[in-house]
């Protein structure tokens, strides 16, 4: 029994922090092993993402065509710029964190406070950027049609560039309004109707001879989506099921629903890490201000929270590569 | 703590590492925007040469963050190996099996997907 129960007799087995196995204090070593386990969790997620990408290697959405927004540049095709900015914000907050740790080694309270403050600001800016990224992803930019078998069809102009549904859909007067309680239909429930109906899209398509469609299928030689000649397009549109604008967990205008699912899950899980990192940073920041570590004569807590913060940056480096570059 | 007294400021090294990380990120972004056809439209080790370049640059970035920002370089060799080798072994193992399996499922499933109507 004694071997399994923590009693007073064996309380000092670890040494209470005096002994330093592997040359690191208990807290720092455990932070390293926590980071190791968290890294394996993220590899599990990214590995699953890679598995699905290889499974649908011939029809996965192309990141450059999905993430094209930049603040204050409406309608400008700006792939990668925004996420590159986010990467720089996070790397920079990593730099201020390591400067705080460095100042802590010199017991310089004022400098630690200042750099911790900058780190927290950087983390907050990153979180705001991610919220904006999600807003654009959920809102969508072009809109698409979902076929009966779940495939996504997008519309392109004569030069092969994607166009919005609004730009060609033909407004029809046969509008149906949403069934809601206040209109007397208390016995049915219905989701909000799309701004553009399927009929309007198809009629608009017929009225614009210059546009055509493209499928999710990727041309292996050119690594772009396959454009279907106009003459064959109606055969696809006859299979239409619904208008899709933006993204949710069931369907998205970019292609495979798994793409949006993994995007939400992995960037969301990372964003949650950033959020908890900011909160822990704030706690440590106030501890620095009230002089807890000054009295303790060691700023090791700043070092430990710094390890976690750098890890969050490290994960972003991989998320950036696998979601936006590769 | 003896460590505290002997510690000299690493500020110079930190800014140098920041410079290296920034340059690597810039190279990645520029390559990602241009996507040179000579690198992008190739097949090498199951993907394109461009993707291999991205992967290598990412690992270099990960090395600099772990070694110099997380101060792994200053830790004892045993701790370093316990953390780094475990991660590298398990991640390589997981990624290899998952990617081979995903690729196999594509080979089986791909031809069954209907793309013409």
Salient structural properties:
heterodimer; A: 326 residues; alpha+beta; Four Helix Bundle (Hemerythrin (Met), subunit A); 2 domains; 5-stranded antiparallel sheet; 5 strands; elongated; B: 117 residues; mainly alpha; 5 helices; disordered N terminus
Task: Give the topology, please.
The complex is a heterodimer of chains A (326) and B (117).
Chain A: H1 26-55, H2 63-66, H3 81-105, H4 109-139, E1 144-147, E2 152-156, H5 198-207, E3 212-219, E4 224-228, H6 230-237, E5 240-244, H7 257-289, H8 292-296, H9 300-325
Antiparallel strand pairs in A: 1-2, 1-5, 2-3, 3-4
Helix pairs in contact in A: 1-7, 1-9, 3-4, 3-9, 4-7, 7-9
Chain B: H1 2-6, H2 11-34, H3 37-40, H4 49-69, H5 77-109
Helix pairs in contact in B: 2-4
Oligomer: heterodimer
In DSSP terms (H or I, runs of 4 or more residues), the helix count of chain B works out at: 5
Number of DSSP strand runs of chain A:
5
What is the CATH H-level superfamily of the largest domain in chain A?
Answer: Cytochrome c oxidase, subunit III, four-helix bundle
Shape of chain B: flat
Radius of gyration of chain A: 26 Å
CATH class of the largest domain in chain A: Mainly Alpha
Beta-strand proportion of chain B: under 5%
Strands of the biggest beta sheet of chain A: in what spatial order?
4-3-2-1-5
Largest interface: A-B, 71 and 61 residues
**Helical fraction of chain A:** 40-55%
**Helix-and-strand structural type of chain B:** mainly alpha
Structurally, the number of domains of chain B stands at 2
Largest sheet of chain B: none
Taking the alpha carbons of the first and last residues of chain B, their distance comes to 74 Å
- What CATH calls the topology of the largest domain in chain A is Four Helix Bundle (Hemerythrin (Met), subunit A)
